[in-house]
Write a structure and sequence with these properties.
By secondary structure, the chain is α+β, with helices and mostly antiparallel strands. Helices cover about 45% and strands about 15% of the residues. The protein is globular, with a radius of gyration of 20 Å.
Length: about 350
């Protein structure tokens, strides 16, 4: 989690080319405000203090504290609520954030998260139609290309632009992907590393094994199209699960004192130390923490996306920020002038 300061991405001309510099806010620790509190109260606070997906942050904290997991109908209700908060974040990206990154108007006059399509207002099938169109979610690469070309939805139009007009090497980055079931003991809470190295715990890491994601990676690598498509694949997965009841993916304890849950941006990890029933220490690793690592995803993607002075540099940098989704107020500065500001 960050301290509320702005993330500043500066694109500067150097040696005939371009260089992106990332000035990230200082991460904060929740330990001080959690210290001495009972586990259940501290878990609720973890949700209140997060920058998105409060239910998932609270669930990760509960798993870390060893609190009992909900069962039966309560577990189904919680899983459904977490799926809906993730879908709301995805819907805002499709309708507002992605078009704006390209300099296009938000879809159908939508201007803020409160007026973006809300999964709670519609049946999953109706919202799925708004995201994917009448043809439904594309699962194979040929269907995906036809879907983009149709321009049936804002997401299709943005991805068609990225797919057909931009070099697939732009924004390409390779980092170890965190997979469900990996060892919690290997997490470095101070450095946001796994096994001593930066890693990716994004939504793309979560759905990387899907057929469509594998096909895009084989054809174009882990670039902008791959990471943007991840939100579509995740949305389709959640729509299917909601139509059949409740998603089965649940928060989990990776090790004693270590919990994980899935947010719209990826996996959030929580670490807890207890003493006589009260919190002695608490830390988190969020997708933002990993993305803003000095050798993390944002810097790697910017380095391969804004290297050349020719081309739509501003749009590529802005879309890279959206693909990474650092969950912080963000300023994009080019040629000494602020070209874009985003509030999350």
């Amino acid at each position: 989690m960050i301290d509320g300061g702005a993330l500043i991405v500066t694109v500067a001309r150097r040696g005939g080319g371009l260089k992106a510099v990332v000035d990230a806010p200082t991460p904060i620790s929740l330990s001080r405000m959690m210290a001495g509190k009972p586990a259940a109260e501290a878990a609720r606070l973890a949700g209140l203090m997060c920058d998105s997906c409060p239910l998932a942050h609270e669930a990760a904290a509960r798993a870390a504290f060893g609190l009992p997991a909900p069962v039966g109908a309560e577990a189904e209700d919680m899983a459904r609520a977490m799926a809906l908060e993730t879908l709301r974040e995805h819907a805002f990206k499709f309708a507002v954030a992605w078009p704006r990154a390209l300099g296009w108007p938000a879809a159908d006059g939508v201007e803020n998260p409160a007026s973006a399509p809300d999964p709670r207002d519609d049946e999953p099938a109706l919202l799925a139609s708004a995201v994917f169109g009448d043809a439904g979610a594309p699962m194979r690469i040929a269907d995906f290309e036809r879907w983009m070309a149709s321009g049936a939805t804002p997401a299709a139009r943005v991805l068609d632009h990225v797919w057909r007009r931009w070099d697939s090497r732009w924004g390409r980055a390779e980092l170890p992907l965190w997979r469900a079931g990996a060892r919690g003991q290997a997490l470095d809470w101070r450095e946001a590393e796994y096994d001593g190295a930066p890693f990716e715990n994004s939504v793309a890491a979560r759905v990387a094994d899907s057929d469509l994601m594998r096909a895009i990676e084989a054809r174009r690598g882990r670039g902008l199209a791959w990471r943007l498509t991840a939100r579509l694949v995740d949305s389709a997965r959640l729509f299917d699960a909601l139509s059949g009841g409740a998603p089965s993916e649940a928060p989990a304890a990776l090790a004693p004192g270590v919990g994980v849950a899935q947010t719209a941006g990826g996996a959030v990890f929580a670490f807890a130390e207890m003493e006589e029933g009260r919190v002695r220490g608490f830390e988190q690793i969020t997708p933002t923490d990993c993305a803003l690592h000095p050798d993390g995803l944002l810097r790697l993607m910017l380095d391969t996306g804004v290297r050349r002075a020719k081309g739509p540099v501003q749009e590529i940098a802005a879309m890279t920020i959206e693909a990474v989704d650092p969950r912080a107020p963000t300023r994009l500065v080019m040629d000494g002038r602020e070209r874009r500001a985003t509030l999350h």
